[in-house]
Amino acid sequence: MKFGSNFGIFKTSDYNLNLKERIVKYGKFYGILCEVCNNEINRHYIYCTYCYDKETDTNKKGQMTLGSKIFKTLDYNLDLKERRAKYWKFYGILCEECNKAIKRPDYYCTYCYDKETDTNKKGHMKFGSNFSIFKTSDYNLNLGERIAKFGKFYGILCGILCEECNKEIKLRLYCTYCYDRETDTNKKRQMLLGPNFGILDYNSNLKERREKYMNLDGILCEKCNQEINKYVYYCTYCHAKETDVIKKNHIKFGSNFGIFETFDYNLNLEERKVKYKKYDHIICEKCNNEIKKQYYNCNYCY
After folding, report:
1. Which residues are CB-contacts of 254 (< 8 A; sequence separation ≥ 6)?
2. Would strands 281-284 and 290-291 be described as parallel, antiparallel, or unpaired?
């Protein structure tokens, strides 16, 4: 009466179909009625919400919604690649424990994962057997040793979890969450680089800095604790913040630099060479740019 002849009966066996197959089968009908309770089925869901609400069995509820596959606790023994191979064809995946939907590309129950407090169990849930725990003692390793120990667990199909906070360690081999919470400067430095790091000595010139720090895993600024790029051998952050010309150049060049003053243009080339030959670097008083020794004049101001 309601739909005329253009309606379909959704049979119990149709719950074996996935969502796409249900759409193909019932998309042409104006209305769909449930075989069991005779209630109308919403075309958006294509399952009987009335029967679903009455059902108490987790597996059956999952099958009713999406033709879903149940992700069993034993499936956590599979690695991510194996989980994908098993579940990729299903529109829905439901957790056996809590009946909540498991999203792609996670292939683990984030609800159960967040509730779990044991680091090993969390790692097993997320990565299967292909994970490792980064222990507090691992901060005693230098960067090369950390790579050797954890390198095989680095990638999208595996992972590293922090022993302290259970969070995943990515990109760099230290826990950024614990690092940000740490207030002790020395501990932060060791977390970042292990024991093989140096604190930059701004009194040394560029050559001395290279010789002193080239074999270290990292260099840190004593003032701001940020890592220093080995290409420049000075803290670009502190350099950019500094407003005093003398201090800026001391940061960049060490103590052995000279300021080329405006009245030095009254000197001839030989006199300029004599005055500034002892300096590693010469800085223009007016614009603060470096002056090349072969010119002994500021090309920028010129």
Report:
1. 202, 203, 204, 205, 206, 208, 209, 280
2. antiparallel
**What's the rounded mean pLDDT across residues 6-27?**
86
Total residues found in the chain within this entry: 302
CA atoms of 294 and 243, how far apart (whole Å): 28
Which pLDDT tens digit goes with each residue over 268-301? 999 999 999 999 899 998 998 998 888 889 989 8
Residue with tokens 């010789």: 211
Scanning the structure block, which residue is given the tokens 């103590």? 255
- Is 168 in a helix, a strand, or coil? strand
The string over 24-61, giving b where at least 16 C-beta atoms fall within 10 Å of a residue's C-beta and e elsewhere, is ebbeebeebbbeeeeebbeeeebbbeebeeeeeeeeeb
Residue where the block lists tokens 């670009």: 236
Residue with tokens 């009466």: 1
**Helix, strand, coil abundance in the chain, percent, nearest 5:** 40, 15, 45
Extract the tokens encoding 59.
Answer: 């597996």
pLDDT tens per residue, range 218-259: 899 988 888 898 889 999 999 999 998 889 899 998 888 999
Record the pTM.
Answer: 0.58
Q: What does the block give as tokens for 231?
A: 């290409």
- Taking a C-beta distance cutoff of 8 angstroms, is the pair 232, 216 a contact? no
Which residue, chain included where needed, has tokens 């004593």?
222
Q: Would the CA dihedral through 187, 190, 193, 198 be positive or negative?
A: positive
